[in-house]
Amino acid sequence: MQLRMALLFLAAALAGIAAVLYATAPAAPATPALAAPPAAKVRTTGALAAAAVPAPKSAAGAQSHALTEAMRKRFESAPNYAAFIHDALQRPLEGGRFYAVLAYHRCESLNGIEAKHFSMHAQSDRRDKDIVVIKDMMQRCAGVQEHFPDYRVIHRRLVLGNARGVPDVLSMEPGLLRLRQTDKARAISELERALASRDPYLIATMIELNLEHYATMIELNLEHYASLLGKGYSREQHRTMLYAASAGAVCEITGTCTENLHLQMMCAAGGYCQYSDVRDYVRGGFSAEETRAFNEIKRALMALARK
User: Fold this and answer.
1) Dist CA 112 CA 270 (whole Å)
2) Which residues form the signal peptide (predicted)?
């Protein structure tokens, strides 16, 4: 039962992440995603104007990281996500489109929760706290559904933005989601680029999307992947373990293991309050041997993220 729940939990997260990468991908694959557009083609002021001016590679990388880090902090603390999305969509040089879609999916995940759900289950200190969190998040998401009734509205904005030749600095190649096993070199390249961005949400995204390639990637990069799955790895036998360990690593990378919106929703609106930590949730019911494998794979994924 716990394994099925863990897979459902990850499937929901991956669905939103996949939409982020697909929608924010630049229209022209030949355009380097991290390259600043010619200054004449984009109107910028302040920090954005500086980002559009050619600079030494190291300086440009540090500046881009500072801009995307500031956008990430705005995403995490935005008092109103409708206003945040509108503004972030206009800031591709700061990773704004990437975070606008993350904000949209964060609010979309609350759809269907109503005030009546908060009084349908037994109360507890834990549940009372989660109800406060979810009510606050619902308030912060006020207006998102009205301005962006479905994902197509945001998608059109993203397509128009990409058509102007200003791809988001945190976007990935448009064909990434259709990778096959023969494309493992490109999968590695995209993962390396995400690591270079130092953006925790992008790194977490790419780790999840690259799961299917780890089995073959071991042969290409023994130093980084040999300890990830071990000699006895079998794709069919250990796939669930790999996804569970990925969820544990991803929440650690993004700092959302104990303050996790999905678990808080499950408790506040559904009365399922058994777990308050994603890592405990996804490995619930594992045997001692499965827990050992979970910890080893998660440890290797975290080492990869810190590379």
Assistant:
1) 12
2) 1-35
Specify whether 201 is located in the same domain as 224.
yes
37 inside domain: no
Q: Is the pTM of this model over 0.85?
A: no
Residue 13 lies in a domain: no
Q: Which residues of 231-251 are buried (b: 16+ CB within 10 A; e: fewer)?
A: eebeeeebebbbbbbbbbbbb
Q: Residue 82 and residue 253: Cα distance in Å, rounded?
A: 26
Last residue of a domain, one of 111, 146, 177: 177
Does residue 214 contact residue 182 with C-beta atoms inside 8 Å? no
Q: What is the DSSP letter of 284?
A: T
Q: How confident is the model over 53-97, as pLDDT tens digits?
A: 233 345 557 788 999 999 999 999 999 999 999 999 999 999 999
Which tokens go with 296? 């080893």
Task: Tell me if 138 is assigned to some domain.
Answer: yes
Q: Contact 145/107 with Cβ under 8 angstroms?
A: yes
H-assigned helices in 125-234: 125-140, 144-147, 151-163, 184-197, 200-209, 214-220, 222-229
Cα atoms in the Cβ-side hemisphere of radius 13 Å centred on 184? 13
Q: Token match 């229209």: residue?
A: 27
Give the domain extent around 260.
179-306
pLDDT tens digits, one per residue of 198-244: 999 998 888 776 665 554 444 333 333 334 555 565 555 666 777 78
Containing 24, the helix (H) or strand (E) segment is helix 2-24
- Token readout for 252 is 């650690």
Handedness of CA 39, 45, 46, 51 (dihedral sign): negative
Total residues belonging to the chain: 307
